[in-house]
Amino acid sequence: EEGRGEPVELAEMTASGFRVVRVPPLLGRSFVEADELAGAPAMVVIGYALWQSRFMGDPRVVGRTVRLGREPVTVVGVMPEGFAFPISHSLWMPLRLSALDVQRREGPQIGMFGRLAPGATVREAQAELTTMGLRTAADFPDTHAQLRPEVMPYAASILNLSATESLGMLAINLFLVMLLVLVA
Question: How far apart are CA 129 and CA 102, in angstroms?
Answer without folding.
Answer: 25
